[in-house]
Amino acid sequence: MHLEPETLPTRVVFTPHKSGPRDLSVIIPAKDEGESLEELYGALTRTLERMGRSYEIIFVNDGSTDNTQQVIERLHERDARVVGIEFRKNFGQTPALAAGIDHATGAIIIVLDADLQNDPYDIPLLVAKIDEGYDIVSGWRKDRKDTMVTRRIPSLIANYLLNSASKTPVHDLGCALKAYRREVLEGVRLYGDMHRYLPIYAGMNGARIAEIVVNHRPRIFGKSKYGLSRIFKVIIDMVTIQFWANFLTKPMRFFGMLGLTLGAAGILAGIYLTYIKIAHGAAIGDRPLLIFAVLSMLAGLQIVGLGILGEMLSRSYFEAQGRKTYSIRKIVA
């Protein structure tokens, strides 16, 4: 299938490219996508050449077992603007994006998947929106070409949960096609599956976010790496995001409030039991309330202690120099 144009109008450390900075950096994580890379490269170069801006295309081979690396090296030999980063093993999409961002030089960083479902001809639309003054532009796959049960329904549920938790005005956080103003990513460290939630984290710091409807194409090579299990991951991520948004720099407010509430409940229960023991001579040794009082006070002390530990870890997080979340075998540049 040949793509045709529709409409044309981790603390990240940026390493200077030997050929100098570019206007655009396109980052593409790839895991066993060797069949699609030639087609994707062709569509990208046709689009980027028409835009008249300097660019680089960064492929990150995330531990592929097919011919992905050979295709990337072949593309680099043909076009020096193609950069290839090969991981020693499969680390995941977030570390792959972190590696691409670390080695990007563009003033605008564009991310898309390697499976041809994102349409490269939408890139000018994203860049035009960045030029309007937005910091992040996210694609919205309004008319998705995925299976209903295993892809679309989980995505709808995931996006509803995340939007409810984060209040971020984005319908489709799972869409890989996004454009970022470079400075928005400065100082960001990517962990876990954080790449999906970059608009949320950036929005917490005041980034201006826009969303545009983009074309979405059916997968023609390989198979999807996501399914129904994503819903459960999103629920866990939602809790993490809420904590990150509200308590990352002040964890004691969360743990302290919870601990004091439990401790206070235990103390009140203890006072009541003491009163009925002294005033009425009632036996309290076999009362469930006594167990509740003791456990609540102990739990309160433990949670307050956890809050103090969280404060220490939070300060270490902001002050320490963290390690990379990936290991590079070699760079083709």
Automatic annotation (TrEMBL):
GO terms for cellular component: plasma membrane. This is Glycosyl transferase. Signal peptide: none annotated. It comes from Candidatus Yonathbacteria bacterium RIFOXYD1_FULL_52_36. One of its GO terms (molecular function) is undecaprenyl-phosphate 4-deoxy-4-formamido-L-arabinose transferase activity. GO terms for biological process: lipopolysaccharide biosynthetic process. Keywords: Cell membrane, Glycosyltransferase, Lipopolysaccharide biosynthesis, Membrane, Transferase, Transmembrane, Transmembrane helix. The chain crosses the membrane at residues 254-276, 288-309. Residues 25-186 form the Glycosyltransferase 2-like domain. The keyword Heme does not apply. Pfam families: Glycos_transf_2.
